[in-house]
Design goal:
This protein is an all-alpha fold. It is built from twelve helices and two strands.
Length: about 210
């Protein structure tokens, strides 16, 4: 049994802050390296045009579609990618992740089959190339469930890092977004013994 698997399986139910810190540790040890590798693939693309193409088509560093976008029907991603590429100049002029996210949302919100998860993931990937990362936690279907389990309202568009329990504040906002999605069921049940393989399966990195 691997060291990381032993680490996750050995976790016991303790008070909430300690347990949340355990989740943060599980994330940093098991998912952060994968997520950083994928973001770096976008971050170090030689030009923004290629970044937008790969992000728009949801293509990962292995040349395959990201698991989060595998259910999007055929023809939708090329349409989204075309709209994004056609607005490269406006994308390049964004000076914050919030501005980038709002722009991508406005460009794609009328595309049938494109949802809020795609818009966030695409903004995150393009933002990596522009050195623009989230400063707050953006909520979509999966993360909203995790946020609700922590006591936040179900209709929020985002959460400030300072409003979260201390155990999660050590992570970056985009990492907390990932955590709320990966561990949403466990947060609901206050159960944090998710196996290593299942943690990776729920991550956006695959």
């Amino acid at each position: 049994m691997s060291k990381s698997r032993k680490l996750v399986q050995s976790r016991k139910k303790v008070n909430a802050p300690t347990t949340l810190r355990a989740i943060a540790r599980a994330y940093t040890e098991q998912i952060r390296p994968l997520a950083e590798d994928e973001l770096n693939w976008f971050r170090f693309q030689p030009d923004l045009g290629k970044t937008i193409k790969f992000a728009g088509l949801a293509i990962n560093s292995k040349g395959k579609r990201y698991s989060h976008q595998r259910r999007i029907r055929k023809g939708v991603l090329p349409q989204a990618e075309y709209l994004l590429t056609s607005n490269l100049k406006a994308i390049r002029q964004c000076t914050s992740f919030g501005e980038l996210f709002a722009l991508i949302n406005s460009l794609l919100n009328s595309v049938d089959g494109i949802g809020e998860l795609y818009i966030y993931d695409t903004a995150l990937r393009i933002g990596a190339n522009l050195n623009l990362l989230p400063e707050k936690i953006y909520l979509h279907t999966g993360t909203r469930e995790g946020a609700r389990a922590l006591g936040f309202g179900g209709k929020l568009a985002y959460i400030e890092v300072s409003d979260l329990p201390n155990g999660l504040q050590e992570l970056e906002p985009h990492e907390i977004e990932d955590v709320l999605c990966i561990f949403k069921d466990n947060l609901k049940q206050m159960k944090f013994d998710l196996p290593n393989q299942e943690i990776r399966r729920r991550s956006w990195c695959d």
